[in-house]
Structures are given as structure tokens and as C-alpha cells.
Specification:
Blueprint lengths: L7 H12 L8 E6 L13 E6 L2 H14 L3 H10 L6 E4 L17 E6 L7 H4 L5 H10 L6 E4 L2 H11 L5 E3 L6 H8 L12 E5 L8 H13 L5 E5 L5 H10 L6 E5 L5 H6 L2 E4 L8 H9 L3 E4 L4 H4 L7 E3 L3 H13 L2 H13 L5 H12 L1
Parallel strand pairs: 1-2, 3-4, 4-5, 5-6, 7-8, 7-10, 8-9, 10-11, 11-12
Helix pairs in contact: 8-13, 11-14
Amino acid sequence: MPSLVGGGAENAMIKYLKAIDYSKYEVTLLLFCLKGVYIEQIPKEVKVLYLFKNQKLSRLLEYLQKRKGITWPLKMIFKRVVKEKYDTAICFLDSNVTDLLFFLDDETKKVSFVHSSYISNKNFNKFYQNEKYLNKVQTQRYAKLDTIVFVSNDAKLEFVEVMGEYKDMRVLYNLFNEEEILKKSLLPLESFAKETFSFVAVGSLLPVKGYDLLIEASSIAKQAGKNFKVHILGKGPEEEKLKKLVNKLNLSDTVLFHGYQQNPFSYIKNGHVFVMTSVSEALPSVLCEAIIIGKPILITNTAGCREVIDFGKYGVMTDRNAKDFAEGMIKYINNPEMLDKFEKLSLERRVIFKEESILKKFYDIID
């Protein structure tokens, strides 16, 4: 993994590490840079290696690798740190870090997990507009992998459109510990006004998460005379910008920022509706977790999100604009019977995230 910062892919990998049968598998975790909130959650059975502690040095060598094609400094450090032989090597977050797999022996099976949408996520798409770079990753990365795993069908479809098809491409939803999620969701939560209708959103404060749309939709719903709260859990570079937008639209009593929360499940459980307004997702972990908890869902028509609720069958889906999303919010507020209906549908849908079946497919990939 690049690191263990608080993202969905990192969280998903920790869940696999906690679920793996260590009587059958010996696991080493290699971090490109030793940092992140999930480090303390790594199971004791896992051997942890890292290439860098110094972020400046890691960024410099990453730049030389990605932009200049200079890999020998990375390879030298990798060989100094990674000395054992492995049956299977997985890059759990497809990126330039995937290329580290090719520093291993030819006999090692090489797998990469794609957690992003390579068209709708502009951060990725902009790189693949460069024909020379695109050809390089097609021939020097993906053609050399034994297996490519996608966390949703949407992610796979977008990947194929950009990169083409390869020999072994599979779709595997992320692993979720249903028992742990439900247990944490029942923990007490202070200062949460349950009597006020509440929407809960969880995720890093990044442009791709589309919180500006959620805030603008909240303004429209407020102007329609509706009384509600929006609870946003997460930290990130957009925080100041989003708080300014909240103040500009006079929503400081309506839209509340809670920062990063180790246990978002209590907030999701105590809220009335879980909302997501992302620009792009592959498979949003927190949306899946909200379904496992049994929350009514309101999302925009976004790759990855729509697949989770089967295009509106198991939750409310709107077009990706503030007016339509506000209408979805108002429908939930005005129609309490919708809460019961979509709570039952979420509980029905959560069967697709059963740990046993997902873990079996994961072992099939490893073996």
C-alpha cells in the first residue's frame, strides 16, 4: 500500500488483514511510506515493512519514477528492505506503487486491486489523456500483471474503456465485518439531536466527494422551509472552502462538521438518512456500511454508488445537481413512511456483502 491514511481502500485492506486465516497464510505488509491512522489496527500476525519514513524523500523518488521513468533508486531501496520470496504479491491500491510488484521474482503471482473510476474521477483521467503515459502503463504495468481485481462493475467498465482488456480481470466487492459494524453502530453518541430530521455524510473533504453539491442542496431545502441537520464526518483540504460556503449560504446551524471520527457508525445509525454526493466512486465503503446498518439511502447517480443500490431499487437516487438532490431530501423529510420502506430494502440488500462469500473469492485470487 502507498500508506495507511484514512481512506476507503486502506480501511478495506485492514478488514482483509483482520479476516485472513493465518493458519494457512503468512502475510507481509509493505508500505511505501510509514504513515496513517490505520497503522495501530494492523493485526499482530502481519509482518510490516516500509520503504520510507521521510515523506519528502518518498515524494521525490515517486516523482522520478512516475514523471521521469527513473526507477533504479526505488529498486535499490526495495531490494534492501524486501528480502524474502513470496508466492503472491498484491498492490491493494492500484497506482504507480503497483510497479513495485515487478521488482519481485518472475515466479511471484502479481495482482492489483483497482479502487477508483478511471474516467469519472478526473484526478486519474487527466493522466491518461497523455498517449505516451497511457501506452506505458498499458504495456509495462497491466499487461504484466497476472490478475486485475475491481471493487465494482462500474470500476471495471471504466477501466476497460481507458486501458483495454487483460487476461484475468475479476470483480470483488470489498470485505465488511458486519458484526463489528453493527456493534459499533450501537455505541452511545452524545450531542446528536435525534428529534431533528438528520442527514449524515461520511468521507474525506476532497473535491471528488462533491460536498459543495450537498451544501447547495441543503440551502435549497432550507429555503423551502424544511427543518433538518446535515452532519458531515471527515477531514481534508476542502474543509475551509466548504465552511466558507456554509457561512455564505447562512447554513451554520444546519450543516455541521464533525471532523474525522473513528466510529462513524454511531452517527450513521442515529441519523435518519445516509447521503452521498460524490463525483466519482469505485465502491464507496461507507455507503456499503450504511446499507449493512440498515439506513435509508440518498445518493446522486454516480459510478459505483448506483451499483450499490442497484440504480435506485434499494435507495433513492437523483441526478447529480443540487436542485434534484434537494428534492430527494425534501421527499424523505415529508414522507416518514419512506424511512421504513428503505430501511427494509437496505437490510435486504446487505446480503451481497456477506463476509464468507467475499473472503472465499479473495482466497481464490491469492491461490
